[in-house]
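Thread: Newbie trying to understand structure tokens

Hi all, I'm a second-year student working on a class project, and my supervisor (Dr. K.) asked me to get a predicted structure for one chain before our next meeting. I've only ever worked with sequences, so writing a 3D structure as a token string is new to me. If someone could post the tokens and maybe explain what I'm looking at, I'd be very grateful. Here's the chain:
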Amino acid sequence: MRQPGFWQADRGNAGVLPLLLSPLAQIWTEAARRRVARPPIFTPQVPVICVGNISIGGTGKTPVVTALLARLADRKPHVISRGHGGSLDGPLRVEPTHRADEVGDEPLLLAAFGPVWVAKARAEAAVAAQAAGAGTIIMDDGFQNPEVAKTVNIVVVDAETGFGNGRVIPAGPLREPLAAGLARADLLVTLGPEAAQARLEGDWPEIAGKPRLRARLAPLAMGLPWKGRRVLAFAGIGRPAKFFATLRAEGADVVATRSFSDHAPYGPAILSRLKADAQAAGAQLVTTEKDAVRLPDDFRREVQVLPVRLESADWAPLDAALSQI
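---
Reply by user tm_fold:
Sure, no problem. This is what the structure looks like when written as tokens:
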């Protein structure tokens, strides 16, 4: 979905629409409270690390999960996911032969870094992961899902957008009230440049005192000379503009951009138009890792990818949170 503009209005200055939608937000809030309060269906015998968010939309969870897989490599980490956008119910282990429309784009991307299990019921995915020998389970999303008992809750925050207007869906972008979400969080991972990190602290004093990892998403060069290169960039992620800005920061000449909704499928008509537009502009098509796994193999060969990885000047807050397991 594309978020309405008023969701990102200044806190306390979002206009009349949030006020009109506040009764529906109250209904959502109560439903979320009841859901979170339900007891878990399954308590694994191994630690469970949940990587989620309080705001709807892309905040950068996938790179955080990728970093956890690397840092916990000696603990046999397995990822579980609902497989958003996938048609298969599961539980099943994601294999390279699967397609994004079967298991979801994020699980297919993460499967390149470690074992990934998808199931519409997260408890079933956790049971399958434990049975397959997982020493640690990393839950990709599901912070508000009570099915699986969690050992550590990591909440990812986009430092540039913060928590929007601070209101609950549909009056704002929050899945639950901010205070309720922060109370359950063991660690905040705030992603963005230093200026955005400082602004986040000023705009949202509620995060003060919470354990917090300040990090950013850094591009992997992969040997590609981006400086001065003419590219047509396209992305169907939570915030495509962030990807386009990263390309420009790498020195690419971004002659055109195309934004799609998060997890958007790429059908023949869209791919044909992208190819034609790139040829007309004399530009190279480039996209994100998550978008690339949704492309057909024959088209994928014509597109270059700019991957990003989590970087931090101080990993101590994350290591302290992981020490609980």
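A couple of things are worth pointing out once you decode it. The domain at 48-217+311-322 is CATH 3.40.50.300 (Rossmann fold). The CA atoms of residues 159 and 192 lie 5 Å apart. Feel free to ask follow-ups in this thread.
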